[in-house]
């Protein structure tokens, strides 16, 4: 399989992830990948080329793309652009699933597109300013957006082909969701396989096939994301951060951290502190 799985963590202060697209400067390609979250790419300037299950969807300013949970997609950003991205946890929509814990949003244009674009732009500007009470305003707008999605964009009748295609990746996404909920514990491949009724060998192959990585690397990635937040937002000791986030010890944490950031956690924290003093 020529695609990978992406682990998504919400922003610290809101129950979803919102950011400016990393391909904003152009000359950027994000290869085929999938994730459990529902994703919206709202393009305000420039252009983007989307590919969903091999079909191309070119985006122009004023348009957005809805990416469903477990939908394989890739993005090409040849030119500079201004794009706001929202990644919404699938659990947000749990009261509106159709069957097989399945929900599907249409990519077709709707009358509410302009309202959605205005909402997203205002949400991001409010979030970026961080005025008093900004979380409340952003949350209000977010739930209005969710309302529009489930009432105006949700498909009530979906083909069995779509359901079957979703189920292939939903098996692994259910496992990764469990890992995200229990990453602080001693979570071996064998114990996880037993919980979900698979053999360790089969589960290992599932990760290689659908996530293009091995089980241990994926678990370390989850732990690292949470440990990174503790490193930059708290004064906890390195060993304590490692222990609180499921690493065997500070040495194991440091090894995974250095692989991604090119330095030890202590060095990274020191550099962050020096930067804050300068500014």
From TrEMBL:
Its EC number is 2.1.1.-. This is Bifunctional transcriptional activator/DNA repair enzyme AdaA. Transmembrane segments: none annotated. SMART domains: HTH_ARAC. It comes from Clostridium scindens (strain ATCC 35704 / DSM 5676 / VPI 13733 / 19). Keywords: DNA-binding, Methyltransferase, Transcription, Transcription regulation, Transferase. The keyword Cell membrane does not apply. The lineage of its organism: Bacteria, Bacillati, Bacillota, Clostridia, Lachnospirales. It is an enzyme of class 2 (transferase). The keyword Transcription regulation applies. GO terms for molecular function: DNA-binding transcription factor activity; methyltransferase activity; sequence-specific DNA binding. PROSITE patterns: HTH_ARAC_FAMILY_2. One of its GO terms (biological process) is methylation.
């Amino acid at each position: 399989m020529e695609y990978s799985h992406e682990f998504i963590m919400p922003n610290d202060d809101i129950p979803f992830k919102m950011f400016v697209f990393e391909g904003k400067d152009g000359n950027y390609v994000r290869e085929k990948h999938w994730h459990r979250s529902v994703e919206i790419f709202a393009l305000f300037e420039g252009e983007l080329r989307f590919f969903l299950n091999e079909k191309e969807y070119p985006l122009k300013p004023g348009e957005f793309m809805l990416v469903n949970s477990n939908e394989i997609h890739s993005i090409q950003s040849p030119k500079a652009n201004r794009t706001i991205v929202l990644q919404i946890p699938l659990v947000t929509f749990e009261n509106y699933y159709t069957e097989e814990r399945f929900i599907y949003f249409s990519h077709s244009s709707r009358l509410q597109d302009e309202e959605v674009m205005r909402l997203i732009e205002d949400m991001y500007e409010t979030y970026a300013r961080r005025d008093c009470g900004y979380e409340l305003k952003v949350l209000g707008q977010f739930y209005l957006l969710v309302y529009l999605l489930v009432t105006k964009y949700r498909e009530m009748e979906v083909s069995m082909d779509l359901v079957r295609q979703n189920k292939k990746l939903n098996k692994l996404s259910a496992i990764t969701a469990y890992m995200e909920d229990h990453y602080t514990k001693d979570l071996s491949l064998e114990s996880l396989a037993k919980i979900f009724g698979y053999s360790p060998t089969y589960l290992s192959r599932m990760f290689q096939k659908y996530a293009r990585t091995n089980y241990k690397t994926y678990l370390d990635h989850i732990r690292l994301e949470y440990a990174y937040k503790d490193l930059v937002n708290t004064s906890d000791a390195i060993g304590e951060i490692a222990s609180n986030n499921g690493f065997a010890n500070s040495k194991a944490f440091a090894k995974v951290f250095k692989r991604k950031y090119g330095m030890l956690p202590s060095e990274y924290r020191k550099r962050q502190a020096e930067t804050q003093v300068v500014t």
